[in-house]
Design brief:
Chains A, B: InterPro entries: 6-hairpin_glycosidase_sf (IPR008928), Beta-AFase-like (IPR049174), Beta-AFase-like_GH127_C (IPR049049), Beta-AFase-like_GH127_cat (IPR012878), Beta-AFase-like_GH127_middle (IPR049046). Chains A, B: This is Glycoside hydrolase family 127 protein. The structure is a homodimer of 595-residue chains. Chain A is α+β, with helices and mostly antiparallel strands and 595 residues long. Chain A has 12 helices and 24 strands. In chain A, the strands form 4 sheets. In chain A, strands 2, 15, 16, 17, 18, 19, 20, 22, 23 and 24 form a 10-stranded antiparallel sheet that branches. In chain A, strand 7 and strand 8 form a beta hairpin. In chain A, helix 8 runs parallel beside helix 10. The radius of gyration of chain A is 24 Å and the shape is globular. The two termini of chain A are 48 Å apart. Chains A and B meet through helix 9, strand 15, strand 16 and strand 21 of A and helix 9, strand 15, strand 16 and strand 21 of B. Strand 21 of chain A pairs antiparallel with strand 15 of chain B.
């Protein structure tokens, strides 16, 4: 559904979108200037600053501005586009880090150079602009870049791919808005070329950039998580536009295996710090869970494409999980700090990074204003700007499908729906028909997989899809109750890192324990959860029953089985994981050992 | 005890030492030439190959040759020394990677340049030569380099340190063999300077190179594990030579905390791949346990220095654990392949690296012939060459202390002892007096902490030290029985990654399960151990009782508690961890989930 057809109204997501479209936009532009990444457009070779992919942050910001479409930012938008356009070469080449005297040659380092990756984000920004505004200066730049890519990397050109996928979905999207099939063909060529060892082996192995095996042969997503989901997104785009059901099923199969074996409870992906990569099956340590915010963004991109292609509500289930537990977690309430990585276990209280300071590493123990690599904040911004598009779809039959629940107005053709809810705090969702055609049509509602006690207008509905087909009349109201209440969740026995633990979820929201909610001096690692006691709601928190086991120091931490220790029962309050570290430094656990 | 006073005789360690001193020496020299790291001495700037620290591999090989003292390698030794000496500058500077036109300036990158680190290994090689042979050409090169370091980094010189500690213990060792106090003073200066943020902040943070806080203030070892133990070794050397008990206790305190909270069951250290670093307290995941072989070498260096300084048998206990479970694990039986990292959980069968091929990454799923960074093999070689020195010590009172048990001959002053044993396969150690003075003296035996049923000549002795003071006569025999038998070991409840698991140990040796020992098609991750059943010896393996739980695929691996499944009891054979991956690709676990 287009962004002009869905509007968020005040609620969980609208608040965050508003902060992103104001405070975060200003914060991003401040830092793009300050770090020199905007200044690189027009800078001398010696004056260039930042990493090899810093151009892409400017493009992602442009994409966020384009989706937001706020007239107040229109002058800024054109000013940046002008700086970018001024650097584009006559043949369409555009990158501040390569190709000039004193720089490495164009495409001399496809493994790490990120030139095609940067084009990808430039083109996505152009697509956003074309979709929301029509063809203008940014679209022209993007089309020229895309033509250059096709000229250079076509069937008779450089027979390789970029170390970081992203150009693939961008080219298909550009095909969709321009109708120029050349872009689709080039995207397909990139998708098919990768996996045939066209890139050099590197320290992390070729799986890092998915060049270890052809995408049609892979069983599961692997390597660098962001690269993996961007590539898979592009492959779905290619498959859908070319009717390639084999390719679509290959990606869907990998998605299913990844969700079943390589995804955190939060929906986050990427276990490893070293290479920002997936671990092996069931390697999901909460300690230093990498869970890059950008991988969450990419995971939504992928699941959304699969949802459109196949309609299975599982995809929307995962999107919801990622939204509430990764996307909502990363940014600070004021929109000017963020998490790059999202650990599920903080053992030492974090340290607040100084205001207005760039953090040289991806992991910060508390949200930070900016990082040496700051991909996540612009990625969040473009996601928040386009968030309304993920709520609902229409089908050829004139029906409407609601995938996510948040206050919103939907106006598509003759159909008008207003949605009101306090979700996820409360499970009740009211859908009011504002306008409707004279004929019968089908309203389909996703019932999340955890909502085993959901009702629609008082009638039990099972997880999956609940479809209501009838002639609706303006003023009709449907009440969906997803019966949100806290529950204990246990991990598959094969996830070694959380054996003997349980977590608390409530609706789509994962909860956590912070040491701020424990008596002074206790860390979260002393808590043992009683798995037989039901968690309950109280004052906005979830209360679980447990025991405190401080542990005692030994000179060597391995030996005979420890004697069971008895401790009094205590009540322990948990809060949503996405709220963690907002009250100051704390230790934190999502998974709690059971007694 | 000097290397001329202790000789290994055929047994567990002598076999490995022999392989190292022949096959590994040849293999190392082959690769040093092939990779160009030897050729760098004399190469043009353009022709230089390898990483910035590759000079150090040549120096560690020289150290290994020096300790071995094999006349058959004497010509090779001098030929290499001549190549090294030819590159030394008139002022003593010596590094193939810096300082020439077209290279970065000397000491322009102390964070990563490794210049002082390379000197450290050069000086250690010189010390080994001085100790085993006397002052010759290598010693001259080392002394000139050390003088250059003192000239350049003295109280009025560059007020910083090297990003990788190693020069510190080397300078104290050079002081010991030369008596020139200047080297000791410089080592002390380096030890005291570090920790005051004299190096730049980096992606991994200043703790990576222990520049986050002064060593006297630290609670525990942290950052890059090899850097941490090398620095701590140098600090102990400085403390001992200057009588600085505060500094000694600071390091001992950090060692105790590290052993209690940051050390694997194998004695290995370093949890993280990203920065080859310690994790936080109790972060000891078996999956991708980094446990760099070099960190094992450095851990022995540190524990040995603390043992000499304080005499506590805990230090020798740890050395034994590292020897049998890290040092013995890394090299292949033929001495031409090795593990750089030592995982405790292999989830996917490894892939045999091609013969004569350099592996571009530190982690190889099976032992590999050479790596882009190949620090471990030369480090193993110098350790095997000097291994006999770790077996025993003498004291001012004329006594002898036995710290490690392996067949050996000890000849120190009037005292001659021959030690025979099948240890660690069997716990019986026979100590035969070959010669002895006419007066009483004390023979002290370490009783390992796990040897709770040990006897000496049939009389129970408790873990710790067993001292026998009397007048010994040639022909006297003592029989120590350490009662080696398999036992189940459980982890401290705070080690999250192995909650609900147990491991099997037998004497000092940690055992593991390999899928080769399971029925075809089963992986090690299906096994559950019955913690109530005693493990037993059978045919060289340890047999435990357990169950097979294959697990079943679900679309989402989190949910209600899984129903307990019943499975028949099976016998499962385990073998020493140091033997793993010697029979071909296999999956492997050290920690087994309990039922």
């Amino acid at each position: 559904m287009g962004l002009h057809e869905v509007t968020l109204r005040p609620g969980f997501w609208q608040r965050r979108q508003h902060t992103s479209r104001t405070a975060s936009f200003d914060h991003i532009e401040h830092w793009l200037e300050r770090a020199g990444w905007l200044g690189n457009f027009g800078a001398t070779v010696e004056g260039r600053r930042g990493r090899e992919f810093s151009d892409s942050e400017v493009y992602k910001y442009l994409e966020a501005l384009a989706w937001a479409g706020d007239p107040a930012y229109e002058d800024r938008f054109h000013a940046i586009v002008a700086r970018v356009a001024a650097v584009q070469q006559p043949d369409g080449y555009l990158n501040t880090n390569f190709g000039r005297p004193g720089q490495a040659a164009r495409y001399s380092d496809l493994e790490w150079g990120h030139e095609l990756y940067c084009y990808g984000h430039l083109i996505q920004a152009g697509v956003a602009r074309a979709r929301t505004h029509g063809h203008d200066d940014l679209v022209t730049v993007a089309v020229r870049a895309a033509d250059h890519v096709c000229d250079t990397f076509g069937p008779d050109g450089i027979g390789s791919v970029c170390g970081h996928a992203e150009i693939e979905p961008a080219l298909v999207e550009l095909y969709r808005v321009t109708g120029n099939r050349r872009y689709l063909d080039q995207a397909r060529l990139f998708v098919e070329r990768r996996g045939r060892q066209v890139l050099d082996d590197i320290e992390f192995g070729r799986a890092y950039f998915q060049d270890d095996m052809p995408i049609r042969e892979a069983r599961v997503l692997r390597g660098h998580a962001v690269r993996a989901v961007y590539l898979a997104s592009g492959a779905v785009d290619v498959a859908v536009e070319t009717g390639d059901t084999e390719l679509l099923e290959a990606v869907a199969r990998q998605w299913r295996a990844t969700v079943a074996r390589r995804t955190y409870l939060t929906g986050g992906i990427g276990s490893r710090h070293q290479d920002e990569a997936f671990g092996d099956d069931f390697v999901l340590p909460p300690d230093r869970a990498y869970q890059e915010t950008c991988a969450g963004v990419g995971s939504i991109m992928l699941a959304w494409r699969l949802l459109l292609a196949e309609g299975n509500p599982r995809y929307a289930d995962l999107i919801e999980r990622v939204l509430f537990n990764v996307i909502a977690t990363s940014p600070s309430d004021d929109g000017t700090r963020f998490f790059y990585t999202n650990t599920l276990h903080q053992r030492v209280p974090g340290i607040e990074p100084a205001a207005d300071t760039l953090v040289p590493r991806a992991a910060s123990s508390l949200r930070a204003p900016w990082y040496a690599v700051s991909c996540c904040m612009t990625n969040l911004a473009r996601t928040f700007s386009s968030l309304a598009a993920y709520l609902a779809t229409t089908d050829d039959d004139g029906g409407v499908q609601l995938h996510q629940y948040t206050p919103a107005s939907i106006r598509v053709g003759d159909i008008g729906l207003d949605i009101d809810t306090e979700y996820p705090a409360d499970g009740r969702v009211t859908i009011r028909v504002v306008s409707a055609p004279e004929t019968a049509w089908t309203l389909t509602l996703r019932i999340p997989h955890w909502a085993t006690e959901a009702t629609l207008d008082g009638v039990p509905v099972a997880p999956g899809l609940a479809a209501v087909r009838r002639r609706f009349t303006a003023g009709d109201t449907l009440v969906l109750d997803l019966a949100v209440r806290p529950r204990l969740t246990f991990p598959d026995a094969r996830i070694d890192a959380v054996r003997g633990n349980a977590a608390v979820e409530r609706g789509p929201v994962v909860y956590c324990l912070e040491s701020l909610d424990l008596p002074p001096g206790l860390t979260v690692d002393t808590v043992r959860l009683d798995p037989a006691a039901e968690p309950v709601d109280r004052d906005g928190a979830v209360i679980v029953t447990g025991h405190i086991h401080p542990g005692h120091d030994t000179s060597w931490p391995y030996g005979p089985p420890p004697a069971p220790s008895l401790a009094d029962s205590v009540e322990i309050p948990l809060h949503p994981y996405h709220r963690w570290a907002r009250r100051g430094p704390s230790t934190m656990r999502v998974w709690l050992p059971t007694t």
